[in-house]
């Protein structure tokens, strides 16, 4: 069908292509490219045809997607054993990039399951806890969530007020957790709480595995979100939740437990955000080459080309940093500061790209016919969670100067 003059095609159900001007693909292994391609096809089949509606409706078929992602080996894919794929950090990152090219909420479903729910069980759990939860979570039959953030305790997790009080049979949990991805659909919650250390008498942070059907556990969907709408986000209330001694994660004490999980998640997010950016940029490029104004395509104007050139250069810069950090993670040489730099750079770059891409699409950029505004709105959340931009700046500032400016 011939397109009317002045109109541009709508990209629905397909991944828009961004030219690889630096030939970065040549640096990837065959396995890395295969995982990226397989994940891209999965997103094209399962996500792209439906995501505009899910976003508009503020819902996501989390359990259905989890089952299909589990069958494809995406859940906990960077972990070994228990049905997990044992993929590298770069392979996991490339999968996150493709998932977030579909939508940030879809990538959040996968990364929370693998890095924030499965990882603490895999890293800090007992053999019994691993056997009970990990195979079902890897298969997508069971979903998990990660309860660290509280209404008044976000960037400062040490100020959490959720408590675990020892009882004759284990612990009683009381408190509120906020902004919990997968919270309303999870089968098990990894809850971080303060409890009194019996040896020192001091408060310490410990992790607890809480089946969500336990009496006193409730999860309520956070209403009226304007970002990350295709994601199940909950407020969790723990009111006298009784768990046995075996619920505690035995192999970690203190904030290094949840912070170690956040580093795992950030390593995926710094790739993932670039997926949203690439999708926005490629959509803007496609639009600019087909949208006719003043008798020629938008792509033929100098100002449009300048925007496209600057965005492509910024995207490739952040992508190369992500690959470098991913390979350092695989080599065991990555530092928390490096991961913070990657998360900071990727999310800020991605948000700038999405916003600028929107300007190329003009009024069409604010509609659900194109993914650009949806990505921009989602990236506002991605910029903030797993450490705000300011927190990552302070982490880098401390590494550079030696001075702790957090307080």
From TrEMBL:
Annotated keywords: FAD, Flavoprotein, Oxidoreductase, Transit peptide
Enzyme class per UniProt: oxidoreductase
Domain Acyl-CoA dehydrogenase/oxidase C-terminal: residue ranges: 254-400
Domain Acyl-CoA oxidase/dehydrogenase middle: 145-240
Gene3D superfamilies: Acyl-CoA dehydrogenase/oxidase, N-terminal domain (1.10.540.10), Butyryl-CoA Dehydrogenase, subunit A, domain 2 (2.40.110.10), Butyryl-CoA Dehydrogenase, subunit A, domain 3 (1.20.140.10)
EC code: 1.3.8.6
Domain Acyl-CoA dehydrogenase/oxidase N-terminal as annotated: residue spans: 29-141
Protein name per Swiss-Prot or TrEMBL: glutaryl-CoA dehydrogenase (ETF)
Origin species: Nakamurella panacisegetis
């Amino acid at each position: 069908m011939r397109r009317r003059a002045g109109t541009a095609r709508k990209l629905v159900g397909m991944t828009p292509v961004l030219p690889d001007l630096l030939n970065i693909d040549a640096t990837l292994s065959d396995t890395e490219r295969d995982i990226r391609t397989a994940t891209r096809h999965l997103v094209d089949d399962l996500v792209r045809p439906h995501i505009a509606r899910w976003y508009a409706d503020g819902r996501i078929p989390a359990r259905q997607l989890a089952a299909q992602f589990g069958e494809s080996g995406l859940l906990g894919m960077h972990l070994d054993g228990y049905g997990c794929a044992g993929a590298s950090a770069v392979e996991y990152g490339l999968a996150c990039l493709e998932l977030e090219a579909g939508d940030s909420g879809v990538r959040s479903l996968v990364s929370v399951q693998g890095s924030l729910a499965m990882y603490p069980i895999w890293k800090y759990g007992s053999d019994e806890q691993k056997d009970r939860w990990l195979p079902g979570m890897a298969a997508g039959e069971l979903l998990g969530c990660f309860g660290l953030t509280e209404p008044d305790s976000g960037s400062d997790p040490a100020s959490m007020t959720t408590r675990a009080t020892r009882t004759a049979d284990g612990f009683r949990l009381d408190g509120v957790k906020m902004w919990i991805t997968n919270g309303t659909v999870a089968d098990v919650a990894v809850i971080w709480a303060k409890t009194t250390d019996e040896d020192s008498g001091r408060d310490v942070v410990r992790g607890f595995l809480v089946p969500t059907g336990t009496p006193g556990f409730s999860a309520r969907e956070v209403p009226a979100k304007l970002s990350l709408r295709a994601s199940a986000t909950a407020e969790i209330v723990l009111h006298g939740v009784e768990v046995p001694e075996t619920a505690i994660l035995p192999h970690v004490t203190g904030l290094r437990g949840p912070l170690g999980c956040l580093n795992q998640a950030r390593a995926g997010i710094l790739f993932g955000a670039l997926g949203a950016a690439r999708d926005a940029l490629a959509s803007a490029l496609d639009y600019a080459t087909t949208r006719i104004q003043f008798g020629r395509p938008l792509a033929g104007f100098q100002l449009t080309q300048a925007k496209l050139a600057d965005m492509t250069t910024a995207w490739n810069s952040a992508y190369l940093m992500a690959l470098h950090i991913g390979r350092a993670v695989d080599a065991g040489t990555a530092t928390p500061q490096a991961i913070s730099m990657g998360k900071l750079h990727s999310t800020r770059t991605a948000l700038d790209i999405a916003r600028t891409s929107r300007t190329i699409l003009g009024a069409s950029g604010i509609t659900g016919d194109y993914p650009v505004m949806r990505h921009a709105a989602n990236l506002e959340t991605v910029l903030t969670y797993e450490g705000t931009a300011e927190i990552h700046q302070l982490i880098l500032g401390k590494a550079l100067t030696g001075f702790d400016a957090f307080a």
